[in-house]
Amino acid sequence: MTSEKFDVVILGGGNAGIGVTGPVRRAGMSVAMIEADLLGGTCPNRGCTPKKVLVAAGHALHEIERASIHHIAIGKPKLDWAALIDREKDMIKDIPANLARSMAKRDVAVIKGHGAFIGPNTIRVSDRELEAGHVVIATGSKPRPLPIPGAELMITSDDMLSERELPGSVIFVGGGVIALEFGHVYARAGAEVTILEALPQLLPAMDADAVARLQADSERIGIRVRTAVHVRRIETANGRLRVHFTHGGIERTAEAERVVNGAGRVANVNTLNLAAGQVEHANGRIAIDRHLRSTSNPSVYVCGDAVPTSPQLSPIATYEGDIVGRNIVEGPKYCPEYASMATSVYTVPPLASVGLTEAAARQNGLAVDVHTNDMRDWFSAKTYAETVAWSKVIVDQSTDRILGAHFVGHAGQELVNIFGLAMRFGITARQIRENVYAYPTFSSDIKHMLGHG
Ligand SMILES: Cc1cc2nc3c(=O)[nH]c(=O)nc-3n(C[C@H](O)[C@H](O)[C@H](O)COP(=O)(O)OP(=O)(O)OC[C@H]3O[C@@H](n4cnc5c(N)ncnc54)[C@H](O)[C@@H]3O)c2cc1C
Ligand SMILES: NC(=O)c1ccc[n+]([C@@H]2O[C@H](COP(=O)([O-])OP(=O)(O)OC[C@H]3O[C@@H](n4cnc5c(N)ncnc54)[C@H](O)[C@@H]3O)[C@@H](O)[C@H]2O)c1
C-alpha cells in the first residue's frame, strides 16, 4: 500500500468539512476530503433543504385553511404526497454534483469511501493510506440509538424524506425539532400525529412561553402531545406499531403505522477508530479544547455535528469548519462564539429564537426588561389572519443590549436575524427602536415589540 501525503485530511464532506476547505486552500495547503456518501452531507441531502420543501407545502395548506377569512372560497385541498416527495427529490438532485465541481475548482481531492484512523496522523480509506499534517473530524451526527426493545422498528427523518406513501398515523418518540417540523407537515397532510416527549416541555431548550404558544397551535391542528412520558418498548400489533409508555405513573399504549425516532442526534464518531488516532473520547464524545482541537492529539480538530457541545445546526457547522480551517492555518487562535446564533423551528407558524431564554437570563441573575407581546390584534397580524403572533424580547437593563428574542409566527424566522445582528454588533434596544422600517412590514412592528423605552 502506498502512502499519500496531504497537509489536511477532512473526514466528511458536509457543511463543516466544506467550511474547513476555504481557509486552508486559500493558504495553499493540500487537502483531501473523504466522503462516504453524498457530498454536502445532511443539510442539503437529508436535512434543512428537502425538509423545507415539505414545510412549504404545509405552509400552503395553512394559507388555504384560512382563505375564507380573505373571502376566498376553496374546496377541500388534496395533497399528492408522492408527487411532493418527487418535487423535493428533484429540487436537491444536482447538489452533490455541483459541490463536487466546486471542490474540484478549489483543488480539493475528494475521495469516496469511509475513512478511519490507523495512526495519530494516518487515515485509511479503502486501500489508500493518507498521511496528514492535520486531520479534521467532520463526520456529522446520527439518530440517537434508543436502548428499548423494538427500537429497530422506528424510522428516521431520512425515511420520512423518502417515503412516497403518506402514513395514516405517526408517533414521534421525542418532542424536539424533528417531531414538530415533520409533525406539522404530516398533520396538515391528513395523518394522525402523536408526540411523546420525555421531559416536561417540548423543545426543552427553548423559551417556555414560546413553546406553550407553539404547543397550543400544534394541538389546534390536531397533534396529540404528551410530555413527561417514559417510552418503554415498541412492538408490532396487527400490522401496526404499538408504543408502550408510562405517563403520570400509569401504563399506556399508543398505536400508529409509523414510529419515528425524534429523540435527538449524537456525534457520528464510533467507527473512526479513535484509539488508533490517539483521540481521547468518552461515550461517543470527543474531548476538545476551546479551539475545537482534540485535547489528546494536537493534529486533530473537530467541527459541526460531531462536536458534542454546540448546537447541531447547519450554519454553525459551516462556521465551526471555517474556524477550524483558520486555526490550522494560523495555529490555535480562534474560538467559536455562539451567543448570537439565531435558530428557527420550521413549524407553521415557526418558532424562532436567539440568545437567552427568560429563565436562563433570570438564572444568570441579570437585571432584565422582558417585553412580551401577543400581537394577534395588531394590524399586521390581523391582515394576514395569523393564528399565533407572539414575541418576547429580553433586554439587559444596565447596557440596554438585547440578551434574547423569541417569536412564534409574525415572520419570526426572518425577524430573529435582525436581533442576532443586534446582539453580535452591540446594537441597543434604543437604537433598534430609533431605526426607520419599511411599512407595512412585520419588521416595522419591532419597535413596538420593544415597548417605549
Ligand atoms: C431532518 C433534519 C433537518 C434539519 N434541518 C435543519 C434546519 O432547518 N436548519 C439547520 O440549521 N439545521 C438543520 N439540521 C441540522 C443540519 O443538517 C446539521 O447541523 C448539519 O448538516 C451538520 O453538518 P456536518 O457537516 O457537521 O455534518 P453532515 O452534514 O452530516 O456531514 C457529515 C458527512 O460525513 C460523512 N461521513 C461520516 N462518517 C464518515 C467517515 N468515517 N468517512 C467519510 N465520510 C464520513 C457523512 O456521509 C456526511 O456526508 C437538520 C437536520 C436534520 C436531520
Ligand atoms: N430547524 C432546525 O434547525 C432543525 C430541524 C431538524 C433537526 N435539527 C437538528 O437535528 C437535531 C436532531 O433533531 P431532534 O428533533 O431529533 O432532536 P432534539 O434535540 O431537537 O429533540 C430531541 C427530543 O427528544 C427528547 N427525548 C430524548 N430521549 C427520549 C426518549 N427516550 N423518549 C422520549 N423523548 C426523548 C428530548 O428530551 C428532546 O426534547 C437537533 O439537535 C437539531 O439541532 C435542526
What is the alpha-carbon Rg in Å? 23 Å
> How many separate domains make up the residues?
3
Report the strand count: 23
| CATH fold node name of the largest domain | FAD/NAD(P)-binding domain
CATH superfamily of the largest domain: FAD/NAD(P)-binding domain
Indicate the CATH architecture of the largest domain: 3-Layer(bba) Sandwich
The span between the termini is: 70 Å
Domain FAD/NAD(P)-binding: 6-321
InterPro entries: FAD/NAD-bd_sf (IPR036188), FAD/NAD-binding_dom (IPR023753), FAD/NAD-linked_Rdtase_dimer_sf (IPR016156), Pyr_nuc-diS_OxRdtase (IPR001100), Pyr_nucl-diS_OxRdtase_dimer (IPR004099)
Domain Pyridine nucleotide-disulphide oxidoreductase dimerisation: 342-449
GO molecular function, one term: nucleotide binding
Which keywords apply here?
alpha/beta, 5-stranded antiparallel β-sheet, single chain, FAD/NAD-bd_sf, binds nicotinamide-adenine-dinucleotide, FAD/NAD(P)-binding domain, globular, binds flavin-adenine dinucleotide, 453 residues, 23 strands
Account of the protein in words:
- This protein is α/β, with parallel strands linked by helices and 453 residues long.
- It has 3 domains: 3-47 and 87-143 and 266-330, FAD/NAD(P)-binding domain (3-Layer(bba) Sandwich), CATH 3.50.50.60; 151-263, FAD/NAD(P)-binding domain (3-Layer(bba) Sandwich); 343-449, FAD/NAD-linked reductase, C-terminal dimerisation domain (Enolase-like, domain 1).
- Helices cover 31% and strands 27% of the residues.
- The protein contains 14 helices and 23 strands.
- The chain has helices spanning 15-26, 42-46, 48-65, 81-92, 95-105, 157-160, 177-189, 208-220, 314-330, 358-363, 379-383, 412-425, 429-434, 446-449; strands at residues 3-11, 31-35, 108-112, 115-119, 122-125, 128-137, 141-143, 169-173, 192-196, 224-226, 229-237, 240-247, 250-256, 258-261, 265-267, 281-282, 285-286, 300-302, 343-345, 351-355, 368-374, 389-396, 402-409.
- The strands form 6 sheets. Strands 1, 2, 3, 4, 5, 6 and 18 form a 7-stranded mixed β-sheet that branches. It has a 5-stranded antiparallel β-sheet with strand order 19-20-23-22-21, with helices on both faces.
- α8 links the parallel β9 (192-196) and β10 (224-226).
- α3 crosses α4 (81-92) and α3 crosses α7.
- It is globular, with a radius of gyration of 23 Å.
- It starts with a strand and ends with a helix.
- The mean pLDDT is 97.
- Bound molecules: flavin-adenine dinucleotide and nicotinamide-adenine-dinucleotide.
